[in-house]
Structures are given as structure tokens and as C-alpha cells.
Specification:
By secondary structure, the chain is of the alpha+beta class. The chain contains 15 helices and 17 strands. The strands form 5 sheets. The chain has a 5-stranded antiparallel sheet with strand order 7-6-2-1-8, with helices on both faces. β15 and β16 (393-395) form a beta hairpin. It is globular. The protein binds zinc ion. Zinc ion (ZN) binds at residues 116, 118, 122, 133, 135, 137.
């Protein structure tokens, strides 16, 4: 049904509409469109934030602030220039697969390799054009590397779903292979047993509509209705209270990041955190995670409303193996302390050139001046940062301590500093809260402070 590739592709979508309530009951779509819908889940959070900022300036939880912090921080606050680039333009291991989509919101040149202009003697390459070769020159030249077996996508027919089936999509984004039985069940379940009240509409969906749909999945429980019937701009994400459930198994040797929370006692509120680079790296990793990985790590997709429904359908209908749903991110996102349940792919030590000799692949976080076994972070080592409740990050060297305290607008007598330890449990809550609320620190960490205050009395 798609006319051509790229930004200008259009699909036809058949909507079944409850004409009285002005609400979409379900949509019938081809597998090409279902692939596009599922591809929204494969976008890294940083990419979603950037696309939605361009599209009607809409924001997602605290992630938009996190992204803006990366934009505003100077190159000196990062380990290398490429660290900033890889956070502003995050890449996903599914980029190659997404090249075959009929409509791709975010085409990337994911498999390109870069090197300096004297690369044949330096013998080094990087995934990013902002990396600096150990010889001192910028690695801005794209070089011809042979595509490895791991980069070749084997499914030829379809991208995520196989075959030529038709699908139905409910207003809250459950996707299933179309059958009369399912359509009837759905009609009955929304009280549309009387067919006279139900109409059918054929709509065109192109780049703009998919963007609006992307915006709606974060802000509405009825994204199809809001995209095609209301055509209004939905408000930002409704702030939900995020339940911190401690269902994650604790291990004795668990990794921990220690931070200082500046607490306003009588309001029982965390105002800011003072932290080192490991905690900032943890937050920055959120931007590199594809939406599907956020849900996978959370393990609690019902918290995410219709995004959770879409994710469940993605897993059920996907032609690829279930193991591909583990939260796997490219090797260059590996940090020293990995609190979240993420797998970083192994960094290949070299890439073979098209015309022969291999070149060494560097870690763009260290520009090639590293021990191959040592993982680096994004933020400059030995730096102190302040993080606000809504995840604005400020390097502390850019502001005096007194100035900072004054900005908090509190009496010194009302402020207290509490040291807390962030484990996998808190890191996971923080990830969920960064997407679902505009008060991530308090939603995810207040319990920890409350316990500490209680223990002290
Ligand atoms: Zn060089």
C-alpha cells in the first residue's frame, strides 16, 4: 500500500469509528504499516525527545530536560566530543533493520565507519565522525569497511512482522492478526454491537501523522482517536504517580552509586542531588535506550498504558526471536558502572576494510587512548554535578556553591544533606519515573530518604 520509500510514503488506514462517541474502535492495516508502528518502539529515547521537540515542541516526562542538559553542557564536561554526539544522536542495533521500513521516522547511517585522513598509516577507525584519532586529527572521513555478517539482516519479507496478513489495531494500540472473531469481540467490548452507529473511514497516513501518533502514545490513552479524529495537539504527558515496587532481586555484590541528596525537611522533598560522573552516566544512558528496552528493563509494561500494549503485541507478533528483546545497546554505550539490566554488545576489536587490511576500532569515549578492557563513561571524570528533581543536570564548576544554595530558595535551617546509595532497584525506578513523571527524583528516591530519616529518629 505504500507508494514510495522515505519521508513521503503514505499508507491507507481503514478506521472503524463509533460515530456517536466520535471515537476510533479499531483500525485495519497492512503489515507494512504495523512495521512502522512497531518501529516507534525501536527508537532510542534521545531520538524520540529530539523528534517530538521539532514536532509541536512536545516533551516527555523529565527526558526532555535530560536531553537539553546534554545540549547545553560544554564539550569540556564530556570525556570526548563523540560522547556528546552519541547522546544527542543515539543509535540502536535495530537501525539496520529499520532501513527496510516503508516509512522511517529516523533514517541513520548506522553502519558507517570513520577515520582520519591519514588512516592508512594510523590504522584506526571509529563509529563517530567527531572522534579524534590518537594522531590528533579528527576522524571525519567515512572509510569503506566490509559489512560483517552481524550487520546483514536475514528476513527479506517484512521488517518485524512476517507475511502479507492484515492486522487490526485497537485505539489503545493492541495489535493482532485480523479475524472476524476478533473484530466482533472488539466491537462488542466497546459497546458497538449495533452496527448502525458504526461507520468506516479511509485515512491517509504519512510522516506527519506518524509523528502525531508518536506524540499521542506518550500523552493519550486513545492515540488513534486523538491522531485521526480530534486532530488537536494533546497536552504533554499526564503526570502519573510512579509506584516504586521493590520486586527486583537484590544481590550481595550489587553495584552501587552513592549520591548526596539535598532535602527540604518540612516539605519532605528532594530539591537536588549532588553527584559524580557515574550517576550522570546512568542518567545519560536513558537517552541511548530504545523505548522497547525501557519497557523490557522495567518488566512492568502495564505502567506504560498503551505503549505497554504495543510492546506486548510487538513481542507476540515479531518474526525475530524473543531473545532479541533483551535490552541490548551498542558497545560504545558501555559505562564503568552498569546498574540497569542492560547488555552492551562486545566491541569488535577491528573492522575489515573492503580492500583488505583490518583497521582497529576505537572506543569513541576515549578516542583510542584506552586499555581495551576498560569501559569509560560519557561525563568528564572527577567532576561534580547537580541534578534537579526534573533531571536538569548542571556541572558544579559552572556555578558557585553559594549561588547554587541561594537558587534553592530555602532557609539553611530547613535544608539537610543525606547520602544515599543507588542500586539497580532505584536506577530502574528512576528510568520509569523519568518517562512517566516530571518529578523523577522524588518519585523514585523519596522512599529511600524517608527510611533514612525514620531510622535516625
Ligand atoms: Zn590518525
Amino acid at each position: 500500500m505504500a507508494k514510495s520509500c522515505g519521508e513521503h510514503s503514505k499508507f491507507s488506514l481503514r478506521l472503524v469509528v463509533d460515530e456517536e462517541k466520535k471515537k476510533v474502535v479499531l483500525a485495519e492495516a497492512c503489515s507494512d504499516f504495523v512495521d512502522v508502528l512497531f518501529s516507534l518502539l525501536t527508537l532510542p529515547m534521545g531520538t524520540i525527545v529530539r523528534l517530538l521537540e521539532k514536532h509541536r515542541k512536545s516533551e516527555i516526562g523529565c527526558l526532555s530536560n535530560l536531553y537539553k542538559s546534554v545540549v547545553e553542557m560544554g564539550i569540556d564536561d564530556f570525556e570526548t566530543e563523540a560522547c556528546k554526539q552519541m547522546l544527542l544522536y543515539p543509535r540502536s542495533l535495530r537501525d539496520v533493520q529499520c532501513k527496510r521500513l516503508k516509512l522511517n521516522l529516523h533514517p541513520t547511517d548506522g553502519v558507517k565507519m570513520f577515520a582520519c585522513h591519514t588512516w592508512r598509516s594510523c590504522n584506526m577507525c571509529s563509529n563517530f565522525s567527531t572522534s579524534r584519532c590518537p594522531c590528533g586529527k579528527l576522524m571525519e572521513k567515512a572509510i569503506p569497511v566490509r559489512v560483517g555478517a552481524e550487520d546483514v539482516d536475514k528476513i527479506q519479507n517484512g521488517v518485524f512482522v512476517r507475511g502479507r496478513s492484515s492486522f487490526i489495531i485497537t485505539d489503545d494500540l493492541k495489535v493482532a492478526v485480523r479475524s472476524i472473531d476478533l473484530v466482533l469481540t472488539e466491537l462488542k467490548s466497546v459497546g458497538c454491537g449495533d452496527f448502525s452507529k458504526v461507520g468506516e473511514r479511509l485515512v491517509d497516513i504519512g510522516f506527519e501523522e506518524v509523528m502525531t501518533l508518536l506524540q499521542c502514545i506518550f500523552s493519550s490513552n486513545a492515540p488513534l482517536t486523538d491522531t485521526f479524529l480530534n486532530k488537536r495537539s494533546p497536552r504533554g504527558l499526564s503526570t502519573k504517580t510512579c509506584e516504586t515496587t521493590s520486586t527486583y532481586k537484590e544481590r550481595k555484590t550489587e553495584e552501587v552509586i552513592t549520591v548526596s541528596a539535598i532535602v527540604r525537611k518540612h516539605e519532605t522533598k528532594i530539591l537536588h542531588l549532588e553527584c559524580g560522573e557515574d550517576f550522570v552516566d546512568l542518567l545519560f544512558t536513558f537517552l541511548a535506550l530504545p523505548l522497547e528496552s525501557v519497557l523490557e528493563i522495567s518488566g512492568n509494561s502495564s505502567t506504560f498504558g498503551c505503549i505497554g500494549n504495543l510492546f506486548k503485541s510487538f513481542k507476540e507478533l515479531s518474526a525475530t526471536q524473543v531473545s532479541t528483546f533483551k535490552a541490548v545497546i551498542p558497545h560504545y554505550y558501555k559505562c564503568q558502572k552498569q546498574l540497569l539490566n542492560i547488555i552492551t554488545e562486545q566491541r569488535p576489536s577491528w573492522k575489515r576494510l573492503v580492500d583488505g587490511e583490518p583497521v582497529v576500532l576505537i572506543d569513541p569515549k576515549s578516542d583510542g587512548n584506552d586499555q581495551p578492557t576498560q569501559a569509560r563513561g560519557f561525563a568528564k571524570r572527577d567532576t561534580k554535578f547537580a541534578v534537579s528533581d526534573d533531571l536538569v543536570i548542571t556541572p558544579m564548576n559552572s556555578i558557585s556553591t553559594f549561588c547554587f544554595l541561594k537558587k534553592l530558595q530555602a532557609q539553611a535551617s530547613d535544608l539537610e544533606v543525606k547520602e544515599i546509595s543507588i542500586t539497580k532497584t532505584e536506577a530502574t525506578s528512576l528510568l520509569e519515573a523519568s518517562l512517566l513523571t516530571s518529578s523523577a527524583l522524588n518519585a523514585a528516591l523519596w522512599n529511600l530518604i524517608a527510611k533514612k530519616l525514620k531510622d535516625e529518629t
